[in-house]
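User: Could you check the structure of this?
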Amino acid sequence: MPTIKILRNGQLTLPAKLRKALDLKEGDLLNAELEKDKIVLKPLTVIERDKIRKGFFQLVEENWKKNKDLDQGKVEKIVKEELEKIRKRAK
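Assistant: Sure, the predicted structure tokens are below.
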């Protein structure tokens, strides 16, 4: 287990082996949580709002075209299912 030294202002450097294992790059974000007596760092996936918004409206439009004969509730269900797929891919 590598030893990490805390520097000025609480900064630390993650060992290269750990960064490579998680494909962490400069500027990536990590979520820090305290679990009992441990600090747990988890990589975050950031998605640009504009990309998501554009993809969402494109998804809705595609589903309306494919399912013109369905009622609104069924189309909303399809859209929710597709959004869940997108969220899972983003993780």
